[in-house]
Automatic annotation (TrEMBL):
Belongs to the peroxiredoxin family. BCP/PrxQ subfamily. The lineage of its organism: Bacteria, Pseudomonadati, Acidobacteriota, Holophagae, Thermotomaculales. It comes from Thermotomaculum hydrothermale. This is thioredoxin-dependent peroxiredoxin. Residues 2-158 form the Thioredoxin domain. Thiol-specific peroxidase that catalyzes the reduction of hydrogen peroxide and organic hydroperoxides to water and alcohols, respectively. Plays a role in cell protection against oxidative stress by detoxifying peroxides and as sensor of hydrogen peroxide-mediated signaling events. Keywords: Antioxidant, Disulfide bond, Oxidoreductase, Peroxidase, Redox-active center. GO terms for cellular component: cytoplasm. It catalyses: a hydroperoxide + [thioredoxin]-dithiol = an alcohol + [thioredoxin]-disulfide + H2O. Its EC number is 1.11.1.24.
Amino acid sequence: MYNEGDKVKDFCLPGLSAEGEEKEFCLKDFLGKGKKVVVYFYPKDNTPGCTTEACDFRDNLNSIGDKAFVLGISPDSIASHKKFKEKFELNFPLLSDTEKKVMEDFGAYGEKKMYGKVRMGVIRSTFILDEDGKILKAMRNVRAKGHVEKVKKILEEL
């Protein structure tokens, strides 16, 4: 599991571009371009918390976009991402980690407690990487509401 200060190894996942084009995305495509990379993991398209978080990133991309690329990753299919992206006019790439391998590497998939029961699932998490892929900030178990404001503040401080 990655922690702050760790260098993330390159990964490639299928996804949708900001324009809705289906293609494979690799982390290395975003590194070394003069910006940080915000990688956020969310449980499921079209659910209340995930919609709040995605729309917050969408609405704040103007102020985040000069400082960082934003990548949203969930275990949902490309077809699900397509509906989610179109319904909410999301303006950043959505990647599909159906096997949950990248999520596991980041510690964003594992045991979580919900309503007193322990089960396996996606742990809502955000990571801010520098231009070389080193983790500057790791945030796990985040709350969707107000989270993007925290991300913006951290990006301004870095």
